[in-house]
User: Fold these one by one.
Assistant:
Number 1:
Amino acid sequence: IAGITQAPTSQILAAGRRMTLRCTQDMRHNAMYWYRQDLGLGLRLIHYSNTAGTTGKGEVPDGYSVSRANTDDFPLTLASAVPSQTSVYFCASSDPAANSNEQFFGPGTRLTVL
Amino acid sequence: GQNIDQPTEMTATEGAIVQINCTYQTSGFNGLFWYQQHAGEAPTFLSYNVLDGLEEKGRFSSFLSRSKGYSYLLLKELQMKDSASYLCAGMDSNYQLIWGAGTKLIIKP
């Protein structure tokens, strides 16, 4: 693994189904993030984690949950998917101790909820 | 409220120079970022400004004026591969990024 990986790459899901998007990083970054990206809108933060064992809500957390059991993994769960959750989901990580505060992004998961 | 404004789309000619502007309002300020995003791909980091002035990195430069809440990204010697969306993001007092909707840059031969 180099950087951040996400799985699946894309998924079509029936409304009401439960879905977990996976995110794994090998950079030992403490901070991780989940964003959604919709046409015409900026990236919107769903949930974040500043360090393993802690999570926080972002701008659009409703309908999503996260966990951070260890440094590397940060899964995002949709408990009961709805069509408005159709989007491209990006996971990102950063090292808060770094001067640049740069966030590194995974390749994204394209999710369609029908 | 927090807000990032940037133009939706710009067109430029290969070999030319283009400036993409961004104005921001954030609760507190911990820096201004520019990312590049090619269609269907993830955003990739271009620049980070936390102090006023110009930061130059090869063909790309980024400028920040904190008093005006203003930044720009300058791209020189445009190449076809520079066709992409350019995302402006401000970091607030909680070290969270507030993102603009992105500027789609179209390069014509």
Number 2:
Amino acid sequence: NAGVTQTPKFQVLKTGQSMTLQCAQDMNHNSMYWYRQDPGMGLRLIYYSASEGTTDKGEVPNGYNVSRLNKREFSLRLESAAPSQTSVYFCASRPDRGLAGVHEQYFGPGTRLTVT
Amino acid sequence: AQKITQTQPGMFVQEKEAVTLDCTYDTSDPSYGLFWYKQPSSGEMIFLIYQGSYDQQNATEGRYSLNFQKARKSANLVISASQLGDSAMYFCAMRVPGSARQLTFGSGTQLTVLP
């Protein structure tokens, strides 16, 4: 099991460029999430997907779009990158029924994005 | 709205000593879950421990225990016998019921274990 994988690990964009961050999980989880981590602010939810074919906005969705391509994959797209989107992006997935009802989220290794 | 507060941006502890990392939370929902994650310098998020709002006992996982005081809305992480490898950022998070069961995170505490 690879768990949750993310590509790329690092990316530098110029303002106005677009890119897609890829995320995949091999644990057969229905729920998947995209967070961003900024210094001093913890992780904040951008978008989530409770099941294949559904997506919903989180706390900070502006400037992003997502696609739940299938049960395994959940991508995050920046259509026109801005310096304010410089951050570390984490993808996560969650089982419907975890051990002892814990339902903890499993995180990918993160993508460090810099927008100049 | 749910909120998690971690008031200690940084903490130091001597190797082999115990340390408590503070976390307070705010929610009006009676059913919630509290999590602690560790983030070492390599960047990955590692799940440590979980406490459900209806759990009668404080959660323990090896050297980690959660001091859950429901009336005070606090969920402090206690690490016993600190090791150098415990140096990392620690995040407290809360999950509330709903279709997404997303997590709300605190701002984190950077723990440094001194030899």
